[in-house]
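User: Show me a protein chain along with its predicted structure.
Assistant: Here is one chain, sequence first, then structure tokens.
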Amino acid sequence: MLAAAESLLRLRPGLILRCAPGAAREATRWPVAPIWPRHLPRCSSGGVPSESRPQSPAGKVHRVPAEHKPSQFDKKILLWTGRFKAMEDIPPRIPPEMIDAARNKARVKACYIMIGLTIIACFAVIASAKRAVERHESLTSWNLAKKAKWREEAALAAQAKAK
């Protein structure tokens, strides 16, 4: 594709490869000013800031500490998800990624529990409906009996009012 038409290929920030039609595999290279903003850190695929660029003037990178003090609820979630074996094993500060992962795992477990309880409730309703059919009970017969009772009460109230 590159040999068919003249094109530019960006290899990495600051280096461009130019291929001309009919040119050999050795292409012309020239440095280009990087387009990455200077105030934002560049990261490699591993998420670690690259060492190729100079850091801040003092040689230090200022980061927000990735530590979080877990609450009692967070500690219970960390125990329930199996991250730690006992409450005493949980350190006073843990990374927020660990809490997020534990919360997500707890959400999934809670969803599975709710799915299981819903299936159990469905079977319980089916069993109770089968027992009601054996007793010849239905919603229609309950409704008719209730309305007959109301009519009877209304008639008694009308008789008492007429006296």
